[in-house]
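pasting for the record
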Amino acid sequence: MPRSKLQRKVIAPPRFKGFKPYGCVNHDENPIELLYEEYEAIKLADYKLMNHQEAAVLMGVSRATFARIYEKARRKIARALVETREIITISGNSFSDQKWFLCNSCHSRFTIPRKIEKKCCPLCRSLKIETIFDRTSDMRFEI
């Protein structure tokens, strides 16, 4: 029996829920699901220009595991571009040190320090916030 997968550390969730191709008629296809840890691998390797060893340490995985996650993410993005398919992000097998929230009024993304009890948007003070990434699950709910 294979060993269960360990969770991968994600610094922050993506700032988007998905991408759609512009100007195509292929709307019947199922979207490509990009996991948060795959997004994190692309961000660390291609955007922040980290080598695989540095990025693997940051995500809490081995270098070989990071390379597999990164390769899978690249293939998904390439497939979405070539087949003009939508990309959506899902939490997958990942965790974060902090709980992330989204304000439904001003659309800002933020964390709330544990010592603060009242949960409201730090920019607009709205109470219409939702959890977008919890360290233990990807459940979405109103607070």
